[in-house]
């Protein structure tokens, strides 16, 4: 005999099941109503092709009743094999189709954890409007080229030839490798190439590869999924390659990237796709890649620190930027341009110009700009004289200060020059240099300095008045006196 208590429990359980079923139906109806308010056609299927969501907009496009097709197999509802294959099997993110005379673009998203595929059907016109809005947003965030070929100053024949070649390269879609000494204007050319290209309305993103650690560079370039590592942003983050889609990405100091990053970059160039850190989804990207280096990549290939296959992928089109000493005739023109740009009215004395024409300019245009900035800051009146120049090594013995500290060891002098040079390069870009950054740069030189060794040397340089150390992670800046001392150290008087 069944007890009354047992019967009561069964009745209560049945009541809860009916209530749960009612809640589930209410939630399903609510979701369906929400999906029917959007302008896009929405389709959700499981991995076997069983339809779980089919909103009214999509039903109107395929001339069916939305309620009749839920829990039906996709191939029984659509008679378009090409659309079914794209939704169920493609690795592409989107594709254009014509459905009964209507041009649509289908966006496909595979949700691995739920074993489902979500397809969104948009009208082509609407998709183009969304893309235009995204492009405007990119420009508002500063992701656009800021210079054109008109901003590249030079009447020297070699420079004019480089500009003409660069304009031709801009019209191609192939990768470009820009080579030249530090400070010659490689990034300026990259901006101008994008501005002259068919992608000029798309985004332009630039990154200095040597300024980031391997892990940080990977996450910046390729993005990451939520939970990929400690501190990862909730919801994940797009990488620069995704953000540069239909535009250009400029990778400066490409010779400094690790072999791990090189292998990921090679995949982008070969396959036109990326995978975020910690993710499984393959994301197609349409990006033009421009790279630059002041390193000898052939030497790096020989010592195994740069992949040969990547080099030939990057070096499809090559552009060499001449150093300032190869185009000395442009120096007066550049001086005039930099002074005019500063907004000051000054005259440069003839002996200063003569000195500039004879100087070697190891830092090229970047060094010239720093020197002009220094002169305009210290000069009195509206005439720049030789006394306004920072110390620059040359053949004149009387230009060398006798009271600069000179270490007994040539290596110590070289280390000091190296540290100050790195700080100055980053200061010229508007950035301070951290101990870790200087230490990483030293790995490419004849000596390797740890962050602790860098700290001790910076302490001494600060006492001597050549640098100013920031608090915490603020980094270090070189002083005007430090710039003069750097020029002194680079001269033959300190290195021999």
UniProtKB/TrEMBL annotation:
PANTHER family (alphabetical): C4-DICARBOXYLATE TRANSPORT TRANSCRIPTIONAL REGULATORY PROTEIN DCTD, TRANSCRIPTIONAL REGULATORY PROTEIN
Residues that span the membrane, as ranges: none
Pfam (any one): WHD_RNase_R
Keyword Transcription regulation: no
Keyword Acetylation: no
Stretches assigned to the PAS domain: 27-93
Domain (Sigma-54 factor interaction) ranges: 152-377
Keywords annotated in UniProt: ATP-binding, Nucleotide-binding
Organism: Peribacillus simplex
One example of a Gene Ontology biological process annotation: regulation of DNA-templated transcription
InterPro entries on file: AAA+_ATPase, AAA_lid_NorR, P-loop_NTPase, PAS, PAS-like_dom_sf, PAS_fold, RNase_R_HTH_12, Sigma_54_int
GO terms assigned for molecular function: ATP binding
Protein name (database record): AAA family ATPase
SUPFAM superfamilies documented for this protein: P-loop containing nucleoside triphosphate hydrolases (SSF52540), PYP-like sensor domain (PAS domain) (SSF55785)
